[in-house]
Amino acid sequence: MPQIDRPSHTGELRESGRQQVLETIRAQGAIARIDIARETGMSPATVTAISAELLEAGLIREVQPEAKPTTGKRGRPRVSLALRGDAHKIAGIKVAHSSITVLVIDFEGNELVDHDMPLVQARMEPEQLCNAIVTALEQCCRKGSIGLADISGLCVGMAGLVDATRNFVYWSSSLTSRNVDMGAHLGQHLNCAIFVENDANLVAKAEHLFGKGRDVSDFIVITIEHGVGMGVVIDDEIYRGTRGCGAEFGHTKVQLSGALCQCGQRGCLEAYVGDYALLREARLLSDEATPQSIGQLSAAAREGDALAGSILERAGRMFAMGLANIINIFDPELIIVSGTHSSMDYLLTPQVIEEMRQSVVQVDAPLPEVVQHSWGQLMWAKGAAAYAVEKVSAQCVRRLVLDAV
Amino acid sequence: MPQIDRPSHTGELRESGRQQVLETIRAQGAIARIDIARETGMSPATVTAISAELLEAGLIREVQPEAKPTTGKRGRPRVSLALRGDAHKIAGIKVAHSSITVLVIDFEGNELVDHDMPLVQARMEPEQLCNAIVTALEQCCRKGSIGLADISGLCVGMAGLVDATRNFVYWSSSLTSRNVDMGAHLGQHLNCAIFVENDANLVAKAEHLFGKGRDVSDFIVITIEHGVGMGVVIDDEIYRGTRGCGAEFGHTKVQLSGALCQCGQRGCLEAYVGDYALLREARLLSDEATPQSIGQLSAAAREGDALAGSILERAGRMFAMGLANIINIFDPELIIVSGTHSSMDYLLTPQVIEEMRQSVVQVDAPLPEVVQHSWGQLMWAKGAAAYAVEKVSAQCVRRLVLDAV
DNA sequence: CCGATTTAATTTGAGAATCAAAAAAATAAT
DNA sequence: ATTATTTTTTTGATTCTCAAATTAAATCGG
């Protein structure tokens, strides 16, 4: 009884070597073999062998040392290795309330083309949503003169409870039904590797691959938008929990029987710091001056409007408390507060940081760094693409190892 | 320039194989080679090779199949492998407020002897505490007729902020000074492998090796005692955070500007559900009936005392909120509420579980199981011993691999 | 301009860990 | 006794990796 595809221990080892090299190259952009050896702890001989294989497979390329390094350094010049962008085209897709954003990148991470397709309604039946996704992808491909068949893989990011290991959506604000097997649905329309993930996790991925978490193996990303999301990276992996619905930072409770949240429960952090929560309170301001957007509210506060100020102040204090709790629980190296708009301007103020500091368990060791990162509107799609790239990468390596047999 | 102790990739692989076999044997108690192969995914050939080595090293033994398995099963009978208890003697030591508990176990986990030595004062200078620990260990060894030199390793568990990777104590309620290198201090008195850990993490270890977390790779242990502690096991490893001071569940904030905690901050969960918090409130009861212990308070509540009832009810609600937050963040497979006394009787009631359920993000998937586990007073020491056993195990394997070269 | 020096990459040969398949061992069934 | 069955061990091959030696490609110094 031959055991065919049970991963052998040696196979795993081999895979991990290749994976490591590829990841190192991706993390560094362009890096010489000798530095890969240093970085990964492998011997130069092994790096040579592996990179030869990756070169042959067309996944990486040698970068000719552009300019003479003029600075007198003797010895054989190092030849850097970089990813071959044209090895694959990969799509990241974000389903938002009012539009679907698509971004196509190459294997190296270069953005080829993006597209935003408005949605007429925010919540749809699964089939309807799939059609919309496919349409958005097609439009994007057409715009960039890319064949749909050239897409090696894609990832769809959506708000809600997603079990990424199964491409399964327990619940999403974009879907009218619960418990949808999005992977299967999309698979009927598209013939490429398909992944579905929670959007906050995708931002974490984006930070890890392209952003401020590039060289960090353990960090936490917090997104503030309509709701509040969190992505946790532990040991270079996204932490997901058993059912795939962990890291629901926005729905951790910060107040017994507190404010009503869009999830129907009370006292969620989101119900104090999310967009809708602030605007809900802002409506109590005198009618004429009622701010319709966070920007207006924030401006009113800056101009000395006491009520607006107190709304933002409370949100800030709640946010500080939430941040402190995260630090007390995870003790991460780094916290990245990511967003597409300037939520940070009023939420991540020095006062909030100070308040957070005072709610963190006191230790004579430096606090985790808290940084903010404003991305463009493409943040989400970029994260989705990053995730898909990683998955496709892993698939390539796996195929490489199998083919070698 | 030969690179001597940089762990080679092959060495890691080899180590992992041996480790895996040993762990499987420990987890299963006694298990045949073929089942180890099935369990770990290795080939039977490899298991034979590895177990031969472990047998020769004296770490495991063959268990003769006791009774004829009468039930007609043909074929060569399987020979189970078990740990050799006499391979090592290991001490677990818990430093509590009023005493030091020591437990000596053998390599197989059998309890050989335990001892409790009262302490005259709860907080001491490092040197003083070390002396007390050594004295307690000596007394325990004498009681069990064990030579101090026969102890292969020990672990000291203490409440507070401990960086176990460095055996370093940022702060502990048992120490008068901060930032103590306990490992170095103890090393001057004892000549064996020494480990220092946070006590909640040790309970997690105990649950993982001997308790309800035996076959679970991801779970969370919550301890309620004087304070509230948490141990997080992710992927069969204790999660510690970067500075080694994560998982401070007791000091997560559940109320803005809330009740005063012993840590000096406000609104910590511990300040609502810890022993001292309940007794603090209970003092407001009519003087004569003031309960001096949790047991009395709990009894009063059961007898219909409204004030006592409301104290416990609020504690329960806060605890439910804390539990729900943990689930929302970690989405664990299992939560074990561990304790030496019956805190569970009033904290882990059906009402609390129900309230927790209502504060958890709603998913059409079964809730994480919440179980309670009452250990004897030896719980902590047992956890410490479990941790030390694991570490010593790993050390043995490492030595085995190195010696083979 | 040419050898000496330096650094990077590759080749070579060997060691080690694993696995598949075959063989051996130990038992039950017939 | 013979056959069937199951576990364990042995054998031989594979292959992943590494150390050391070698080759490659540059600078430096005279």
UniProtKB/TrEMBL annotation, chains A, B:
SUPFAM superfamilies: Actin-like ATPase domain (SSF53067), Winged helix' DNA-binding domain (SSF46785). Signal peptide: none annotated. It comes from the Bacteria. Gene3D superfamilies: 3.30.420.40, Winged helix-like DNA-binding domain superfamily/Winged helix DNA-binding domain. InterPro entries: ATPase_NBD, ROK, ROK_cs, WH-like_DNA-bd_sf, WH_DNA-bd_sf. Belongs to the ROK (NagC/XylR) family. This is Making large colonies protein. It comes from Thalassovita autumnalis. The lineage of its organism: Bacteria, Pseudomonadati, Pseudomonadota, Alphaproteobacteria, Rhodobacterales. The gene is mlc.
